[in-house]
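Handout, section B. The chain below has 249 residues.
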Amino acid sequence: MNKLFYCKKKKSVLYKKPDVKSEHCKELIFGEIFIKLKAHKKFIYGYSKYDKYFGYLKKRDLGKYSKNNNYLVNTAKAYLYKKNKLNSKTSKFLYFNSKILVIKKDKEFYQCNLGWIRNQDIIPLKRIKSKDYLNNIDIFKNTKYLWGGNTNDGIDCSGLVQELMKNKLIKCPRDSQKQEVFFKKSINKKNIKRGDLLFWKGHVAIAINRRECIHAFSPYKKVIKMNIDKLISLLIKKSLKLSSIKRPI
């Protein structure tokens, strides 16, 4: 029995229970591989291959996986075209980090398993070598806060970290608690630099330099840039103490 599936929707919610009213654990986006463990009525229970996150996905959101994808969407939203012409643009799009199979190349457009897509919106997986995972941080500027979100239409603090790292093919757990354990190298606050992760109980922020950080912050309902010391003081008032600073790369 084929246990490998892929997300065939632009995004699909991974539920804690086989019920659309249950907690949203995270979102899978197009092309992500999901490993089936068992079927449950209109749902499939299993885990995402990338981060081994367990939960339930709707059966209708999954397709049987057969071929390896070779390109990654490298822009906020990559629109699909009916033909290899600008005037054939559709309303359909793929989110940042969606994985596709390119089967034909033209000058400005590539044909993939969903239609035509501009070549400037995608990147070959084999060409991803940089580990500067903050290269595309502007994609999430002012994105609204969404618990369990993984796209620039809505994201939470640990989802932001994961999507930025996923874009550079860096392994990263989904939850902040697991991220704090997964990344081993601890850093003193006075030595903080771009890309370091700051952890509190239930929260994570990313340093963009020695003084500032960026994070998806539920009280502000969006992804924002903040002074690190200000954030530390603000969370202390909520009885949340900075638990660690980790250097992932």
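Note. The first strand starts at residue 4 and ends at 7. Compare this with the example in section A.
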